[in-house]
Amino acid sequence: KTFVALLVSLILGIGPAQSVKAQFFGISLDTAIGYSAAKKGVIGGSVGITHPIPLVPNLGVSSLKFAEDSDYQSTDKSKQINLNTANSITTINIFYNVPFPVVSMAIGLGYGNFLSQTTMTYADSNDSTKNFVDEITEQKLPVTEGFIHVGLPFWNIIEFHIGYHAFSAAAVQRDKGRSLDISGISGIDFKKVNYSGGMSTIGIQLAF
Asked: Which of 5-14, 110-119, 181-190 is most confident?
């Protein structure tokens, strides 16, 4: 809610009342402060390069890393399975700066890869010789991106902004390629997980 309120205030122009003027080349640096599909902390952000050439889109890249840890237990509680999944998103994007009288706005689209790597740990309290760790093959899926940045410029050379990047990818079967046969284990069933979501960012742009 705080993030949405800040976005609305920027769009409505609550801040220094100065016009956004034309700039030459610039660089935008943003850091991720959250991702809607991540249960833990995230690392990532985006970088963009702007230029003054009319109609030619600006270029940028986005990246995000996050993990998920899940525990499963058989009905008789004798068998435990842990899935630890490391996910990463990397995209290349194009974007345009949209002129407004008070605030600045950038809108863009991107495309890239979503990588998911899971480590499965199996434990059997009745037979410790069956305990093992299975490194499951990394899955690679295409991902699309759409984003918006809204900011306030100061002195025509610096801008502070917030952003929202929406990523969309197919659902992941986290245990795909596993060597463990769970067909005879009652109470354990792995379902697909969809990691599509939105990355919130804060950042700064410097003009040269």
From this structure: 110-119
d(CA 129, CA 76): 19
DSSP classification of residue 193: B
**42, burial (CB in 10 Å: exposed 0-12, middle 13-18, buried 19+):** buried
Residue 25: phi and psi, rounded to 5, are -85, 150
**pLDDT tens digits, residue range 134-160?**
888 789 999 999 999 999 988 878 999
Q: Note the pLDDT tens digit of each residue in 41-93.
A: 999 999 999 988 888 999 999 999 999 999 998 888 888 999 999 999 999 99
Buried b (16+ CB within 10 A) or exposed e, 123-144: bbeeeeeeeeebebeebeeebb
DSSP class per residue in 38-64: -SS-EEEEEEEEE---TTPPEEEEEEE
Tokens 């309120």 belong to which residue? 5
pTM for this structure?
0.83
Q: What is the rounded distance in angstroms from the CA atom of residue 165 to the CA atom of residue 110?
A: 10
What would the 3-class secondary structure string for 132-164 be? Answer: EEEECCCEEEEEEEEEEEEEEEECCCEEEEEEE
SS3 6: helix
